[in-house]
Amino acid sequence: MSNAAHRSNRVLVVATIMFATFMVAIEATIVATAMPRIVGQLGGFSYYSWVFSAFLLAQSTTTVIYGKLSDIFGRKPVLIGGILIFLLGSLLCGLAWSMMSLVLFRLLQGLGAGAIQPVTMTIIGDLFKLEERGRVQGAMATVWATSAVVGPLAGGIIVDNISWAWIFWINLPIGILSIIAFMIFLKEEVAHKQAKIDYLGSVLFSISIVALLVMLTETDASAWILLSLFAVFVIAGLLFLAQEKRAPEPIISIPLWSRRLIATSNAATLLAGMALIGLSTILPIYVQGVLGRSPIVAGFTLTMLVVGWPLAVMLSSRFYKAFGIRRTLRVGSLLFPFGACFLLFLTPESSPALAGAGSFFMGFGMGLISLTSIVLVQDSVEWSMRGSATASIIFARSLGNTLGATVLGAILNAGINHYAGGEAAAGLHEALNQPTGLSALAADPAIRAVFNAALHWSFWGVVVVAVLTFFTTWLIPVAPSRKREGAAPAAASEAASH
Length: 498
Hints:
single chain, mainly alpha, Growth Hormone, Chain: A, two-stranded antiparallel sheet, 19 helices, 1% strand
């Protein structure tokens, strides 16, 4: 058997994947909880956002590269290499002596983290048939849900009782055990071939995407800087496309990404990522600043999103058997805008339960959209392209998150400027930058009304993107019936070529 992973020890491999995934999944929430303490000790508040941005930039940019490398060299060496880089970054983060050094070490961490999610999901695609994958992906979804709950709690305990460095060093034993387990349990045979790595394509792709993401995240920069970043993005992007057309082993296969199944799945995932990041960033602000509820209640409304997503993934295999994969995908995509519409009915007198219901339905819909897109894309390609195809979905979601945060944030600012005068708008922005700003907004009926109206502009933005997601999923070519076992992979492959 070549270019394949042995199906023995599947349970142990999945358990190890869950262990490694938890290490990365908890990173965002545990670091966010500890950052105020870290800034207090290291200083350099101006670099605060870059502690997160550096990690996400490196992770998003390298996802596609690692996916291709796993197709060339096999899943295990690329995954273990990524974990080692992540652990080195974690060790150095705990030793950081300034915010600038922390940002640089977080960048290194992100370079390693970019391998973990796409390669582990590709391994699942290698080991399990399509009808089995829903149950496994459901278990993976629970890892992300658990990390969302455990991360803030663990971060608070660590910074209150021991050094903040341990929020990074806690990764070391987890990562080392994961590497040992992968070396023992993950068995694969890769056909050896002379492969020419597309180094130039990797560099050009990284430059182009980093320029795009920095341009989207640093919208307050001067027009000259933004135009320069846009120029770098376009020029590097054009050079990258030219390089990929002539490279013998392109880091991104243009013909692969152009297949209808993969292109439409990526488009739907990107749009869904935009809508979800909008929900995640705007809804807690509304619950606290307009409804006047506590941060805990605001967190509860997003917890329903975390509940809906893994629940949908766990039930997906039953839905596939009962209704077929096409109906499951389309009903799931319908629940997405259905949940978003709940946001439009929120008023200053609404119960947080209404916001929680909207979050639940959007999470449930996203679970079905995400899983179905991944399994269809994975099943439409052979082993040698599965890593690249899986990475394309994850990259699309990351890019959607960045785009959504920028676009919906701009809509919110436009709404504030529309409903409030110059001084009032400035006062509102100033209040939002204060630790107790949201509480002050909720206590002032006039400002509260302005904030309510402005946030509804963003809610409309979420609804529009969710509706676009719904229509895009209908463009994904799916066989009309899943009742014939074994026909799905062939149907997906046939659809992908059209």
